[in-house]
Amino acid sequence: MAGVGPMTQDWEPVVIRKKAPNAAAKRDEKSVNAARRAGADIETVRKHNAGTNKAASSGTSLNTKTLDDDTENLTHERVPTELKKAIMQARGEKKLTQSQLAQLINEKPQVIQEYESGKAIPNQQILAKLERALGTKLRGKK
């Protein structure tokens, strides 16, 4: 140790402190009890409908009566019976299977099956293709 003079420490003492508690920590049950023991003033405020779901389920809204009174039928239009029979009859006259007819109009065989069973939702483009392939009028007045 080649130093001149006595060795001394030149360091300042370092004090590490915790941060001041944030708002959430101040509301903590532990800190509230500590404040009560210390005699500090504690203010408690209850929020309206806090922690409940009453606003969503209680009472009746303005639209409840109109929803209850609504008797509208909300189902999709289906293929009418006359159209089903007309497609089957025309396909039978041409001696085509469902898959052959589907191939003629560039659709899946399932589409023809749905039209003939009455489960399909009528599509004017597909009906036009069927009319051309079968050579009959399927839509409009007969």
Short description:
This protein is 45% helix and 0% strand. It is mostly helical. Keywords: DNA-binding, Transcription, Transcription regulation.
Describe the structure.
With 142 residues, the protein is mainly α. Helix content is 45%, strand content 0%. The protein has a domain at 81-134: 434 Repressor (Amino-terminal Domain), CATH 1.10.260.40. The protein is built from eight helices and no strands. Helix 6 (98-104) packs across helix 7. The termini are far apart. The mean pLDDT is 81. Residues 21-77 are annotated as: Disordered. Belongs to the MBF1 family. One of its GO terms (cellular component) is nucleolus. Residues 50-65 have a biased composition (Polar residues).
Poorly predicted parts? none
| Beta-strand content estimate | under 5%
Main beta sheet: none
Which superfamily, in CATH terms, is the homologous superfamily of the domain at 81-134?
lambda repressor-like DNA-binding domains
Instruction: Give the % helix.
Output: 40-55%
InterPro entries: Cro/C1-type_HTH, Lambda_DNA-bd_dom_sf, MBF1_N
GO molecular function: DNA binding; transcription coactivator activity
Pfam families: HTH_3 (PF01381), MBF1 (PF08523)
Biased composition (Polar residues): 50-65
SSE blueprint and pairings:
Layout: H1 23-26, H2 29-38, H3 54-57, H4 64-69, H5 81-93, H6 98-104, H7 109-117, H8 124-134
Helix pairs in contact: 6-7
GO molecular function: DNA binding; transcription coactivator activity
Domain HTH cro/C1-type: 87-141
Subcellular location: Nucleus, Nucleolus
